[in-house]
C-alpha cells in the first residue's frame, strides 16, 4: 500500500467519516451517495485554500484543519442549509505523520462541531493545497439567496466584524499582543464558527443573505447588485469586538470591520415585520443599516453624513518570496 | 474587478454553466442548489489532478480541459448514475487568456458531451492544480457498488484496455508513432469518454462495478476484496486495441491492458442469467473472466494455467525535476 493510500485509510478511520444523517454511502466506493429528503434541495459549495496565499506555509496543522473546513461550511450557513457532509481534496508535498494527525484532528473537531460527515475526496502529491466541497439540504424555496432584498428591509449582521483581518498580523507573526487581546482574535481567525443556527432561523424571514468573506462593504455590494437596490450602513451600529478595539484602536478596528475579509459572519436583509420574530428565536444579530431604492453601498456617520470610503474587496494575504 | 474575478465571470458565461436538468441554482450565489428526484440518491465524487503528477506541465489546455472533467465523470458512470453537474476548483500560477480560453473550451466540450452542468467552484492563485467534484443521481438501491459480486458471476469490461498507458510515452514526447497508431491512443488519453450508457444499462443487472483507473488487475482486486471472493481473468479475452498492439507489440500491449492505469473503462460482474438482456441493450462489453469463491485476482492463459504476475497498481507518472 502506497503512502497516499495509507493517508486515505487514515482519514476514512476518522470519527467524522463514519457516516451520519443523509449519508447513504460514505468513503470507499467510486462515489458517495447522499439522501436528500423530498421537498428539499441539495446545497453545494467548493472552496480552495492554497499555502502561501490563503494561509501561511508554516502554521499549526490542527488549526488549519479547523479553519479549512469552517471557511467552506460557512457558505452552507449563508444559504440557510442544514449540514450533511463534505469531500476533502488534499494535495501534500510530502507525508508527515505528525502533520496529518494534527490536521485530521482539527478537521474532525470542526466537522463534528458543524455536523458534517467526511464522505470522500482525493489525496495527491504536490504543493500544499486544500479544496473542500460541502453539502447541505434546504427546503425548496427557502434557500437564502443574494437577490431578494427589498427597499425598506433592515440590513443586519450576525456578529462582530473585522476580527479575522485584525488577527492577520498576529497570524503572520508580524505583531504580538497580550493574550487577552490576541487569543480571541486568533480564535476567530483559526476557528470561525459557521452560523448555521442563524442561517436556519432566517429561512422564510430574511430576503437576502451571504457570509462576509470579502469584507462588509464589498459583500453588501454583492447583495445590492444582485437585488437591484442600495444598502446604507450606519457606522455607529457596526459591531466591533473589545479585543479588536484594544489591539488596533477604535479607528483601525472600524476600518477592519468595514473592509476586512474572512469574517464568515452572515449579513442579511430582513423586512421590519420579521424583526420581533427573529429576535424571539434567540439567535443574536445586529441591525446595522437598511435597504433603499438606488444602487451601491453607502456608509453614514451618526449625523447621517455620507462617509463612504473608496470600496475595495479584501485581498488574501500573499507572502512575499 | 480582479483578474481572478474576471476568470469566474468567464467560466460562468460558458455554455455548460447555463444550467440544466437538476440544477435549481447555478453559479453566482454562496451555494448551488440541486434537485434530486424522490426515490433517487445523489452520487458525489472528487478528483484532483496536479501538474507534473497527473499531467505534463506543458500540454494542450483544450485537451487538459476535456481530460480533467472526463476522469472525474467516469466515477459517476461507474455508479450507474445519470449526470447532473460539477464544480471546478482551478488553481493557476498566472492568468493567461489564451490558456483559459482553450481550457474552458475543452471543459465545455466534455461537459456537454457528458450532460454535466458547471454549477460552481473556486479560482485561486498557486501551482497549477485542478479539483473536480461531480454530481449525478441514481435510483435508491440501484447504485453499482464494488461489493456485491457473487461466485459464478461473469467478469466483464466495457472496452479495450491499456490505451492510456500505451499513450503515455507519446504524451510525454518520449516516443513518436505514425498518426494511424498515435491518434487513437492520444485520443483515449486526452479525451476518455465516461461510459454512462453502459453504467446505466447495468442498473439492476450488474452485481458490482467500478471504473478502471489503477489498472485492470489492481481494480479487479478492489472488487474481489470488497465482495469477499476471487476473480479470474482469462488473458486471451482481455480486449486490446489494434493501435496499441501496433505501437507496443502484442506482449507489451497485453501488459499495458492488465496493469496500465487511466483507462476509465468500466469493469463489472454480471450473473450469467443477465447476459442476454445486457447484450440486448446494445451497449458493447466483453466477458473476460469469472468470480469464484476465494480471494484475490488470478490470470489464466488459454490453457487455463495460472500466469498471475506480481500485482502492482498503476503509479501516476511523475516528471523528473
UniProtKB/TrEMBL annotation, chains A, B:
Pathway: Cofactor biosynthesis; thiamine diphosphate biosynthesis; thiamine diphosphate from thiamine phosphate: step 1/1. Coiled coil: none annotated. InterPro entries: PurM-like_C_dom, PurM-like_C_sf, PurM-like_N, PurM-like_N_sf, ThiL-like. Its EC number is 2.7.4.16. GO terms for biological process: thiamine biosynthetic process; thiamine diphosphate biosynthetic process. Residues 28-138 form the PurM-like N-terminal domain. Residues 298-321 are annotated as: Disordered. Mg(2+) 1 binds at residues 46-47, 122. CDD domains: ThiL (cd02194). One of its GO terms (molecular function) is magnesium ion binding. Keywords: ATP-binding, Kinase, Magnesium, Metal-binding, Nucleotide-binding, Thiamine biosynthesis, Transferase. It catalyses: thiamine phosphate + ATP = thiamine diphosphate + ADP. Substrate binds at residues 54, 262, 314. Mg(2+) 4 binds at residues 30, 45, 75. Signal peptide: none annotated. It comes from the Bacteria. Mg(2+) 2 binds at residues 47, 75. ATP binds at residues 121-122, 146, 213. Mg(2+) 5 binds at residue 214. NCBIfam families: thiL. HAMAP family: TMP_kinase (MF_02128). This is Thiamine-monophosphate kinase. It comes from Pseudomonas reidholzensis. The gene is thiL.
Amino acid at each position: 500500500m502506497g503512502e497516499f493510500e495509507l493517508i486515505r485509510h487514515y482519514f476514512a478511520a476518522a470519527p467524522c467519516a463514519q457516516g451520519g444523517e443523509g449519508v447513504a454511502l460514505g468513503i470507499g466506493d467510486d462515489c458517495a451517495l447522499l439522501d436528500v429528503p423530498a421537498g428539499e434541495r441539495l446545497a453545494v459549495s467548493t472552496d480552495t485554500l492554497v499555502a502561501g496565499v490563503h494561509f501561511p506555509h508554516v502554521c499549526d496543522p490542527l488549526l488549519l484543519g479547523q479553519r479549512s473546513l469552517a471557511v467552506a461550511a460557512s457558505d452552507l450557513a449563508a444559504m440557510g442549509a442544514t449540514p450533511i457532509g463534505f469531500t476533502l481534496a488534499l494535495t501534500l508535498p510530502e507525508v508527515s505523520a505528525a502533520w496529518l494527525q494534527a490536521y485530521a484532528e482539527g478537521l474532525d473537531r470542526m466537522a463534528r462541531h458543524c455536523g458534517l460527515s467526511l464522505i470522500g475526496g482525493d489525496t495527491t502529491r504536490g504543493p500544499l493545497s486544500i479544496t473542500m466541497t460541502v453539502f447541505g439540504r434546504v427546503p425548496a424555496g427557502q434557500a437564502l439567496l443574494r437577490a431578494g432584498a427589498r427597499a425598506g428591509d433592515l440590513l443586519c449582521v450576525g456578529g462582530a466584524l473585522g476580527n479575522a483581518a485584525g488577527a492577520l498580523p498576529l497570524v503572520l507573526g508580524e505583531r504580538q499582543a497580550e493574550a487577552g487581546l490576541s487569543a480571541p482574535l486568533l480564535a476567530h481567525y483559526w476557528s470561525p464558527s459557521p452560523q448555521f443556527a442563524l442561517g436556519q432561523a432566517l429561512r422564510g424571514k430574511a430576503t437576502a443573505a451571504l457570509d462576509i468573506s470579502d469584507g462588509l462593504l464589498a459583500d453588501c455590494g454583492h447583495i445590492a447588485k444582485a437585488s437591484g437596490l442600495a444598502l446604507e450602513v450606519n457606522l455607529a451600529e457596526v459591531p466591533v469586538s473589545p479585543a479588536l478595539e484594544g489591539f488596533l484602536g477604535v479607528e483601525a478596528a472600524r476600518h477592519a470591520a468595514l473592509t476586512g475579509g474572512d469574517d464568515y459572519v452572515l449579513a442579511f436583509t430582513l423586512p421590519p415585520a420579521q424583526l420581533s420574530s427573529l429576535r424571539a428565536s434567540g439567535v443574536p444579530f445586529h441591525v446595522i443599516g437598511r435597504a433603499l431604492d438606488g444602487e451601491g453601498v453607502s456608509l453614514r456617520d451618526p449625523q447621517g453624513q455620507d462617509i463612504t470610503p473608496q470600496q475595495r474587496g479584501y485581498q488574501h494575504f500573499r507572502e512575499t518570496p
